[in-house]
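Hi, here's the filled form for the chain we discussed.

Project: internal
Contact: R.S.
Residues: 253
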Amino acid sequence: MARRKKIYEGKAKILYEGTEPGTLVQYFKDDATAFNAEKKATIEGKGVLNNRLSEFFMTGLTQIGVPNHFIKRINMREQLIRAVEIVPLEVIVRNFAAGSMAKRLGLEEGTPLPRPIVEFSYKDDALGDPLVPEEYIIAFGWATQQDMDDIVALALRVNDFMSGIMYGVGIKLIDFKIEIGRIFEGDFMRLIVADEISPDSCRLWDMKTGQKLDKDVFRRDLGNLTDAYTEVARRLGVMPNNVSPATKPTLIN
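And the returned structure, exactly as it came back:
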């Protein structure tokens, strides 16, 4: 059977036409990028791990009533998702200072924040995904005030869920980013969590050692990225112990 029509290709995933109306097939690549794609590499097994981990997190969100685009996993690298209209924002939730926030504010990485802080960046690679205040978002019509209230509520619910899950396996959730999509059911519009949730989009530190288990391993040349992601999957019980993420499975064509 021929590969379905490609809808979009990003840095880490490819979207194909879905098996039924209103769906897409999301394929996870082994490509890794950092610094707005200035640093690139192909890391064998990364796509398999991110597919399985995103499935795990999205399924967990569904179970606690947080709406998201995930329908089912098709194989080791692909999942069936709902087609959404993406809000052109990256929604960032920070529990500890790290990365750009630590640099902006002169804080030591790992400094606990007084409360979870939600930030927004405008999705535009050419501009470097700049941080934008809520006033810009509403003024330019990217989202309404009601949308923003709903997005913040969704992001904080995801944070509560993710923080608890990670704490239970000895991992500190430093920060993460998600994307939000609009779905339309007749005249009714809903906002749901979209894209992916994986170590590509989170900062994850071992609670005892501070070892980084996320894409900073690649950004900062701290070791083997697949090993870091595999450790997260192992602790969460996502990957069977006898399966290597680097195994090349047969994909649906």
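Let me know if anything looks off before we file it.
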